[in-house]
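Sanity check

After download, print the first record. It should look like this:
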Amino acid sequence: MKLHHVAIQVADLERARAFYAHVLGLVEIKRQAHSIWFDVDGAILMLETGPRAERDGLHVIAFTIASDAREE
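Expected structure tokens:
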């Protein structure tokens, strides 16, 4: 199993982007109106804001699972 992406809700998208880009050195790979995506060694870190981002915190962790193993 491989980690595909992690989504974190943030109240201040630009402040969070500055931390992940400048402090941790992650490379921004995609930007949308309410999200910024970073590459983390082949996995994706998504910072998201919007109506559901009432407070900061982990929102989603998604794994890549082979199609023949999904029923398990």
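If your output differs, re-run the checksum step. Summary of this record's structure: Helices lie at 13-23.
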